[in-house]
Design brief:
Elements (H helix, E strand, L loop, with lengths): L3 E8 L2 E7 L1 H6 L5 E5 L7 E4 L2 E3 L4 E7 L3 H8 L8 E6 L10 E7 L2 H14 L3 E8 L8 H6 L3 E6 L6 E2 L2 H10 L6 E5 L2 H11 L5 E5 L15 E4 L2 E4 H4 L2 E3 L5 H8 L3 H12 L8
Parallel strand pairs: 8-9, 8-12, 9-10, 10-11, 12-13
Antiparallel strand pairs: 1-2, 2-6, 3-4, 3-7, 5-6, 13-16, 14-15
Helix pairs in contact: 5-6
The chain binds nicotinamide-adenine-dinucleotide and FE2/S2 (inorganic) cluster.
């Protein structure tokens, strides 16, 4: 169970794995996620389901190696097993015929946008996709997303590919040109999702974001993923992860995401120095 059957480097520190997990593959829907534990001592962390193959019984996950858990996951090779994977979790995206939709993926959040782009295109929407990364080397899934998009735009912060600047510049430009989107989806860093919400708010465009707070149980019991939406406390794992962007308290989300930054940094230092005698 949970055996890695394929592995690919997509960009520096961004990896794709295909894992044998027939029960999750059977039920997976766009917008849902899984919670993994790499080994007995590992923490639990969420990853969005990027793709699934019900016939092969596999799921595809993409992750940025940023902390101990994702770095540990990145060390596993084809044929290795992940200790536990729970899912699919979360309420699936509402896939229907909206009309004209714009889907924005920022950085590794692009991986989470991909299944939604695919499903919205298949549902008959006119799909405009905007994908952004800090630099061209960090862009992922361009060909896959282009295939399911009527229009496809790229931005890089440093201008190495596409528009030089943020995804929000591209969105703003399209709106100024008269694109009347029925819905905008944004998935990426919280600062990006907040910026997208501020672009669409004055135009009253329905905007959906997929929130990524710290999660532990993924069952609505531990409270780790608490977010405030429309002044009410919601749990991203069971009430989300998708919410109305114009109602989300992004300031609180960003603060809570950084709650354990010092501990995460220390854990990473200890893990990277494992095996050396400096901590004995
Ligand atoms: P990043 O910091 O490189 O940013 C990616 C893009 O987002 C940038 O190129 C830019 O276009 C846009 N952006 C960033 N800051 C912005 C701002 N202030 N205003 C407007 N646009 C801005 O992204 P990364 O390092 O790859 O990190 C990806 C993030 O996505 C992580 O924080 C991860 O937790 C998150 N993520 C979210 C989900 C989800 O479901 N919401 C899923 C996977 C990853
Ligand atoms: Fe525990 Fe959501 S992760 S309540």
């Amino acid at each position: 169970m949970n055996k890695i059957v394929a592995k690919k480097d997509l960009a520096p520190n961004i990896k794709l794995i295909e894992v044998r997990s027939p029960e999750i593959a059977e039920k997976a829907k766009p917008g849902q996620f899984v919670i993994l534990r790499v080994d007995e001592k590992g923490e639990r962390f969420p990853l969005t389901l990027v793709d699934w193959d019900r016939q092969k019984g596999t799921i595809t996950l993409i992750f940025l190696e940023v902390g101990v858990s994702t770095k540990k996951l990145g060390t596993l090779q084809v044929q290795d097993e992940i200790l536990d994977i729970v899912g699919p979790l979360g309420i699936p995206s509402e896939i229907r015929h909206y009309g004209k939709v714009c889907i924005i993926g920022g950085g590794v959040g692009t991986a989470s946008a991909y299944p939604i782009i695919r499903a919205l295109k298949t549902a008959g929407n006119r799909v405009v996709s905007i994908v952004g990364a800090r630099t061209a080397q960090l862009l992922i899934l361009e060909d896959e997303i282009r295939k399911f998009s009527d229009e496809f735009y790229v931005s890089t912060d440093d201008g190495t590919k596409g528009h030089e600047g943020f995804v929000t510049d591209v969105l703003n430009e399209l709106i100024q040109k008269g694109y009347d989107f029925d819905v905008v989806y944004a998935i990426g860093p919280a600062v990006m999702m907040r910026a997208v919400a501020e672009v669409t708010r004055p135009h009253r465009i329905k905007t959906i974001v997929s929130l990524n707070p710290i999660m532990v149980d993924g069952m609505g019991m531990c409270g780790a993923c608490r977010v405030t939406v429309g002044g009410k406390t919601r749990f991203a794992c069971v009430d989300g992860p998708e919410f109305d962007a114009h109602q989300v308290d992004f300031g609180e989300l960003i603060k809570r995401q950084r709650m354990f930054l010092a501990e995460e940094k220390l854990a990473l230092q200890l893990w990277e120095n494992r095996g050396c005698s400096c901590h004995e």
